[in-house]
Amino acid sequence: MYSIQQLTTLAGTTSRTLRHYDAIGLLVPKRDVNGYRQYTKQDMERLQLILFYRSLDFPLETIHELLETKPYDRTRVLERQVTALREKAAYFETLADTAEATLTSLKGGIPMEDKSLFKGLSFDELKAHEAEHEDEVQTRWGESAAYKTSRDRAAKRSKEEWEALNQQQVDLIKPLVDLYRQDVPIEDERVQRAVWSNHQFIHDHFYDCSLDMFSGLGQMYVSDERFTAFYDKYAPGLAVYYNDAIQHYCITNS
Question: How many independent structural domains does the chain possess?
């Protein structure tokens, strides 16, 4: 058995974090006769999974859902992660090649064709990349109700419907691009209205997107280079601006 102080030292987390996990039912330890938290070996293993998913920017709500759905096959999870990381490495190599070619061109080297500027960065390429990396998607979201809802809705859509949704997403991004370029503060009503429209778009067409999940998506836009590249191709720094606006939106409406 470990006290909260011993576990924070062992796991490298904080007592405040563990208390929060206890309060929301994510990691509930036993109590001794004096009411002090006592963590078992099973609690430690559960905390490892929690911190593992947090490192991938999972919202706490989703982590709780995943942990309660069914027992974990750790070998399978790790196998998926190895595959996902190698696929990410290959994708980032493509982005690095594009950036290096652009840098060479700027220094007076071989001029780049316009279409080459966005190799690996277009929305269609990102969607294709996601489709190719289903193992990663399954690892991140496979057991959540949101993923299942999104998957079921996606299976019923025609190509034309997908193209229409893709265009809607691009149209929803454009106001954010304009506001960002005008240096409009994220607290501004126009920015928050644009964020609401994007939140509603996800909610209406993909899955029931809670504020916690939406906050997690925003964090993923800046922590996952693929999503950052998608938004920043419209304007460098847009991903950070969008995430900041999402976090303000979620806090304001919680």
Answer: 2
**Model pLDDT for residues 161-204, shown as the tens digit of each residue:** 666 777 787 888 889 999 999 999 999 999 999 999 999 988 88
Q: Enumerate residues 6+ apart whose C-beta is below 8 A from 96.
A: none
27 and 99 share a domain?
no
Amino acid code (one letter) for 115: K
Q: How many residues does the chain have?
A: 254
Residues 35 and 116 reside in one and the same domain: no
The H-or-E segment that residue 37 falls in is strand 37-38
In which domain, by residue range, is 155 found?
74-253
- Of residues 251, 240, 239, the one with CA closest to residue 192: 251
Residues 48, 94, single domain; the answer is: no
pLDDT number for residue 142: 47
Q: Is 110 exposed, middle or buried (0-12, 13-18, 19+ CB in 10 A)?
A: exposed
Q: By the 8 A CB rule, do 221 and 197 touch?
A: no
Q: Which residues, in sequence order, are CB contacts of 211 under 8 Å at separation 6+?
A: 250, 253, 254
